[in-house]
């Protein structure tokens, strides 16, 4: 056991009342009981259980480091217990995100989403945890980029000598399972060249360049890629440290004042605006959405979780929510058409291919159509 503190968020959707809307309070109570017992036994220092939409969020602190079997096993046990409640109550999609029956040391690849950040606690350690529903991890690309690399968002990049050197982005390719470290501001355009494709390249970690301090971590689990079939959306989480040589809390929240379009929403198959909401509105109803995000503010004190403060519970975000509603209305009017519905590549991981499969044999050859040459062929002539 080291001196360092690890903040672990492990989340999963293990069933919901009336569709994919929100968990039952008894599920949250079941998960809370498991974590309270673990706290008594000193396995964890502190914890908080909440939800966004239908995803149960386990927020835990401990001294065991990232990817520790005790912590992952504990989360698995809590989700199992919440699943048992879901089954008893015949809730919808009971145990949805638990892709395996048996736990084997780590929840990665087994369905739940994970963001863990090991830290040397600073004199004061302000941290924000973000929890989203009905979207994918790439939804964090734009806000994380703006927090750590956009001087029009983060005044500190210009003004504060401690972050004037910039940050290092670890970008993860979910299809190839490999990542690349890139420096900002020097390589900003290259970073953007990758992360503008959020279904594939995800900002996974951000480090302060001057001392390699780990400033942010995003969960990168893509549920349907893991399962190889449509299960549900990934519904990602992120941890961002703030202040004192890092972006201020207001700079961390600022990008969310723009409800950018993300993939997810109904059946994980639609683009829609990401709406920042207080915890009381963290339930998804209109067309199973629109995609939603909460921001919880904490101070960590020797591993104790001081908080949370419900950061989007502020009238200053009312106009963002109104804009998100207008965008939601506009996007919905497209019905089953792109770009509201996702493009064919992303639809590969939904239930659409089985519908298309049925139609395949009904196509008959009609008149010859000249096949347009590939751009590369044209260039070679
Ligand atoms: O479970 P069903 O009836 O097949 O419907 C698909 C469901 O998948 C979802 O995309 C699941 O969303 P989650 O990933 O948040 O669980 C819902 O929008 C939709 O209700
Ligand atoms: Mg969900």
UniProtKB/TrEMBL annotation:
Residues involved in Mg(2+) 4 binding: 234
Chain residues that bind Mg(2+) 3: 233-235
Listed cofactors: Mg(2+)
Pathway it works in: Carbohydrate biosynthesis; gluconeogenesis
Binding residues annotated for dihydroxyacetone phosphate, in chain numbering: 20, 134, 267, 288
Residues that, per the record, bind Mg(2+) 1: 13, 20, 54, 96
Superkingdom field: Archaea
Record-listed beta-D-fructose 1,6-bisphosphate binding positions: 20, 92, 105-106, 134, 243-244, 267, 288, 349
UniProt-listed GO biological process terms: gluconeogenesis
Amino-acid positions noted as binding Mg(2+) 2 in the UniProt annotation, renumbered to this chain: 54-55, 133, 235
EC number: 3.1.3.11, 4.1.2.13
Pfam families: FBPase_3
UniProt GO MF annotations: fructose 1,6-bisphosphate 1-phosphatase activity; fructose-bisphosphate aldolase activity; magnesium ion binding
NCBIfam families tied to this protein: FBP_aldo_phos
Quaternary structure annotation from Swiss-Prot or TrEMBL: Homooctamer; dimer of tetramers.
Function: Catalyzes two subsequent steps in gluconeogenesis: the aldol condensation of dihydroxyacetone phosphate (DHAP) and glyceraldehyde-3-phosphate (GA3P) to fructose-1,6-bisphosphate (FBP), and the dephosphorylation of FBP to fructose-6-phosphate (F6P).
Family: Belongs to the FBP aldolase/phosphatase family.
Name the record gives this protein: Fructose-1,6-bisphosphate aldolase/phosphatase
Organism (species): Thermosphaera aggregans (strain DSM 11486 / M11TL)
